[in-house]
Amino acid sequence: MEGTQRGPVTGWGRALEGRHCVVTGGSRGLGASVVRSLLDEGARVSVCARHAGRLDELNASVQQDGHPALFTRALDVAEPGDLAAFVDDAAAEHGGLHGAVACSGGAAGRGLGSATVEEWRKTWELNAGHAAALISSAAPHFRAVGGGSIVVVSSISGWKPGPQAQYGSAKAAQIHLVASLARELGPDGIRVNAVSPGSMLIPGKRWDRMRREDPRAYERFLDEFPARALVDPEEVAEVVTFLLSDRSRGISGANVPVDRAQNAPTPEGY
User: Fold this and answer.
1) Which of 167, 207, 218, 242 is catalytic?
2) Which of 34, 57, 150, 190 measures 20 to 30 Å from 183, CA to CA?
3) What are the start-end ranges of the E strands in 91-241?
4) Is 131 within 8 Å of 181 (Cβ atoms)?
5) Which domains does the chain show, CATH number per domain?
6) Confidence bin at 12 (pLDDT 50/70/90)
7) CB count, 10 Å around CB of 223?
8) Which of the four pLDDT bands, split at 50, 70 and 90, describes residue 39?
9) Is 167 assigned a catalytic role?
10) Quick one: DSSP state of residue 200?
11) How far is CA 219 from CA 113, 216, 228, in A?
12) Burial class (CB in 10 A: 0-12, 13-18, 19+), 149
């Protein structure tokens, strides 16, 4: 008989009990949902984001819910040195590192005719560049504990064309980054995956504003979803948490859409 067949793992309990995970862009929206999901599964969590006040609010909120305090730091993830220092300090604070989530992202500029080279550069650094820097910073810590798991939050815009091109191409780069680094880091017991959310309904963000300010446009946008409902951030967070746990131990180099079978990524179509 070739190889060893492993049976199903039973008695999971909380999937991330005793493990430490870092999350970038975790102070609100999807990032905050990811943080809460990881805490619910027993992880110790470190979070970075740009605004110290929002990090403080999140930290106070999770402790009110009975979770342990977060290790937090305000920084710009596009500054690789600052990001690497945060990862090192977080690992030292919690005695190692087992998981990482590259959740920070965004776009600068609009269409090709008006977007500047600087806006293209900024968009790429915030998405693909920051994800690569996080993986590079986390990998030595993962090796020290015998392996780890990384999840990069990409987007359906990475393979479903829509405006603006600089954002979609940066998200496509993240998906390729994951597929390549999963092969490179696999021998060290490190798994690398991407999750690609569809359009999420987050209070105060673009689609929530459209729902309140332009309900007709929002109703038309719902036609892009077979169930006529946008993605809930908690749905994405649960998949991220699964990919960080041993329950997904056979998955690496994958891009997992969480988009409710969404068609076009924006109301503009194409």
Assistant:
1) 167
2) 34
3) 99-102, 148-153, 190-197
4) no
5) 20-198+231-258 (3.40.50.720)
6) low
7) 11
8) very high
9) yes
10) B
11) 30, 5, 9
12) buried
